[in-house]
Amino acid sequence: xxxxxxxxxxESHSERIKAFRAQYAGWASRPMRSWPHLSIKGGAGLSAExxxxxxxxxxxxxxxxxxxRLGGPAVFPGDGRVLHLQVESPGWGRLHRTLVDxxxxxxxxxxxxxxxxxxxxxxxxxxxxxxxxxxxxEVYAAVRRAVPxxxxxxxxxxxMERFDSVANWWKQFHEFDLTxxx
Length: 182
Hints:
Helix content is about 35%, strand content about 30%. The chain has a single domain, classed as Cyclic phosphodiesterase (Cyclic Phosphodiesterase, Chain: A, Alpha-Beta Complex), CATH 3.90.1140. The mean pLDDT is about 95. It has a 4-stranded antiparallel sheet. The chain is built from 6 helices and 8 strands; from the N terminus they run βαβαββααβααβββ. The chain is globular and about 45 Å long. α2 runs antiparallel to α3.
């Protein structure tokens, strides 16, 4: 089973991202397989075992809610097909590092290379076709019109999701509230 830890995007932002995905589905190289979210930990070391869930629960209980600021549209260097919103959040960085390091230490799991080298926080909008990439300025303009860039929201939960290969969709498996002192 594949698992991941994600931060839900505020509902008002999520609805606009879903509308953008629907309106510009022709720019997508494949259908999206999850609701809008901000990934924080890949699957290495994650499981449905009570010990793993307790570990994540402890980390969440020691973490205060924090702000996430969404920036403008971008694509990753390299193949450049992942259209996303840039993210700025010191709280994300601290929680990401704590989750990655603690889960690895407790499980001995081999980390995903991006967890070691530096995961880039982002909210994926679409995986672009080659034709859409050629029209990047138009794509970016559409994002700026349709999606709440240069805005922020407060993260209060971490969700563990599990990939359902039959449905080809990431589904919520567990939710952990951030309840640390502010």
